Amino acid sequence: MAIDFNQNHFALFGLTPAFAVDLEALDRAYRELQTEIHPDRFAHAGEADQRLAVQWATRANEAYQALKHPFARACYLLLMHGIDAMAPGHAPMPMAFLERQMASREALAEAVANADYDALGRLEKVTRNEAERLLADVAELLDGRQDYAGAAEVLRQYRFLEKFLADVGHAYDEME
User: Fold this and answer.
1) What GO molecular-function term can you cite, just one (predicted)?
2) 9-68: which CATH architecture?
3) By CB atoms within 10 Å of each CB, which of 4, 18, 53, 86 scores lowest?
4) pLDDT tens across 3-47, in order?
């Protein structure tokens, strides 16, 4: 079993490093790789080969999860270019963005306090649309412009919205 543990996640699956990934090709490559390296295939091999198969399967699983999800894929691409988008110490968020988030938080609290499912639904829809727009911006900044610092800034905003959407989901649960 000849394995290069230094390959990046994209190379592991035979993909070109890019934010826009053919998810079907990723799934297919992952399944093929899993067939080759699954630890069960090495049950009768030596202990060293068994350990290596477990390490390789773990690496393949981690790489697959990183590439499958847009946020994780963008973070990984940025890391490949030396930028940890989620590390503390980056420039502060734009004030207009933060003000919109504060207003959204207030609207969320009001919707929950009033058990207003319609308001919660509207808030969720607006936030999902904004999150999708931000992901499209990240794609353009990464793949189109190779503006990695700009992509990191937009990705941090996207992460903010992702957390807010999780809070909206919890709000639905609280109201039931």
Assistant:
1) ATPase activator activity
2) Orthogonal Bundle (1.10)
3) 4
4) 667 889 999 999 999 999 999 999 999 999 888 876 676 666 777
In 10 A of CB 80, how many CB atoms? 13
- Convert the pLDDT of each residue in 60-111 to its tens digit: 899 999 999 999 999 999 999 999 999 988 778 899 999 999 999 999 999 9
Compute the C-alpha angle 105/109/112, nearest 5°.
135
159 phi/psi in degrees, rounded to 5: -60, -40
Give the domain ranges of the chain: 9-68, 95-175
Compute φ and ψ for 147, nearest 5 degrees. Answer: -95, 85
Name the CA radius of gyration of the chain, rounded.
Answer: 20
